[in-house]
Amino acid sequence: MRFVIDSNEYIFAFGSSLETPAHKLLDEFLNKPSLHTIRIPETIFEEVSRNLPLASIHEFHKFIRELTVVDKDSLVPFDIGAKYEAMNLKMADAFIAAYTEWVGADALISENRHFITRRPDLPFKVLTAETCLKTIFK
Description:
By secondary structure, the protein is of the alpha/beta class. It is 51% helix and 14% strand.
């Protein structure tokens, strides 16, 4: 399966000393690297890098190098983003939705983009880390 992991999941996984669902999820990806593909836009990479404690940035970058494709934001076609903006999504949310569609992801994993799910015609699922663990890695 192909996933887009939102910035909040990386921050919960790498920025906390607690065993969070996000941390468990990233461990699952590390344990089964050939089964799934992770893609993120450079916006997410930069946001996470800015918001993690200095001690965690190396671990995050290592995870990205090993398992994730980082795409330039400018590659996402404008018309896909405009479609999501026309759905009254905020610009940042419209971009993440457009990116997720553009890469052909099966799911966007996020703790705070659940409002996107109010659209019944999305070409991808929106899952929390906990829900992803329960449904994909059961």
